[in-house]
């Protein structure tokens, strides 16, 4: 059975997330993060991809890009394969390095674009790796603040910055928002990310068991297996797992209608 096709963004903007297999820290060292960064830079020249934000963490990476969906898929396949080859060779291992397909979230509004960009830049702050996102070496925040450090960002990203913020100080202040909006954004983005991964798990169970996705969520035995896998993967409470399951179930119900 073929995989569910990716949703295409009406604006061409996507938030991309790719994670190490089983949460393995595949970008653990500075050398590994630098190699991923170089692979991205080399392939941006070969594909029609516009970069607006990025952050390379220890076990996953975030990209905010504008691209044709087919071109984006080719680009991601190339950079992930290139890094997997490097990583396997370095650690004398074989097999998969990344967890399934990369996740793509459509960015359909300007507000969501800026919230997503902020979320990406604040990943290392949330992980207690730094207090100021400008100080994190492997994200685009420093490129926005220091024009001389331009490396991966598309020139259009700076034009958008100037159209939205009076100056770079205001841009930094946007990242230090204390009015609660940021925390709402973080929680919402985390929920969407977990739900997207949960849908991939559900799809896999559907293919393996040859049972409909709705039946998996409805029947106690399969539902418990699904929830157990989510709980172990995300390390969250049963209540949060059930919230994800209910959200997916509602989506399936809307599609049926």
Automatic annotation (TrEMBL):
Pfam family, one: Y1_Tnp
Signal sequence annotation: none
Coiled-coil regions listed in the entry: none
Transmembrane segments: none
InterPro entries: Transposase_17 (IPR002686), Transposase_17_sf (IPR036515)
Positions of the Transposase IS200-like domain: 9-123
GO biological process, one term: DNA transposition
Gene3D superfamilies cross-referenced by the UniProt entry: Transposase IS200-like
GO molecular function, one term: DNA binding
Protein name: Transposase
Originating organism: Candidatus Dorea gallistercoris
């Amino acid at each position: 059975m073929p995989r569910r096709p990716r949703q295409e963004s009406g604006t061409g903007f996507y938030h991309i997330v790719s994670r190490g297999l089983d949460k393995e820290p595949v970008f653990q060292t500075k050398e590994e993060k630098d190699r991923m960064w170089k692979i991205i830079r080399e392939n941006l020249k070969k594909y029609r991809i516009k970069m607006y934000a990025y952050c390379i963490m220890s076990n996953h990476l975030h990209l905010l890009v504008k691209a044709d969906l087919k071109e984006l898929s080719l680009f991601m396949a190339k950079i992930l394969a290139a890094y997997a080859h490097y990583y396997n060779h370095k650690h004398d291992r074989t097999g998969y390095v990344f967890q399934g397909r990369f996740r793509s979230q459509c960015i359909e509004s300007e507000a969501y674009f800026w919230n997503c960009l902020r979320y990406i830049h604040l990943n290392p702050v949330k992980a207690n790796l730094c207090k100021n996102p400008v100080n994190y070496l492997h994200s685009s925040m420093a490129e926005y603040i220091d024009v001389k450090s331009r490396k991966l960002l598309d020139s259009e990203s700076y034009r958008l910055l100037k159209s939205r913020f009076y100056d770079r100080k205001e841009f930094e202040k946007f990242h230090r928002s204390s009015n609660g909006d940021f925390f709402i954004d973080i929680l919402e983005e985390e929920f969407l990310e977990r739900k997207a991964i949960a849908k991939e798990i559900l799809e896999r169970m559907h293919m393996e068991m040859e049972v409909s996705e709705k039946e998996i969520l409805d029947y106690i035995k399969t539902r418990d297996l699904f929830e157990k896998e989510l709980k172990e993967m995300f390390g969250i409470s049963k209540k949060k797992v059930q919230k994800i399951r209910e959200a997916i179930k509602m989506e399936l119900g809307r599609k049926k209608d």
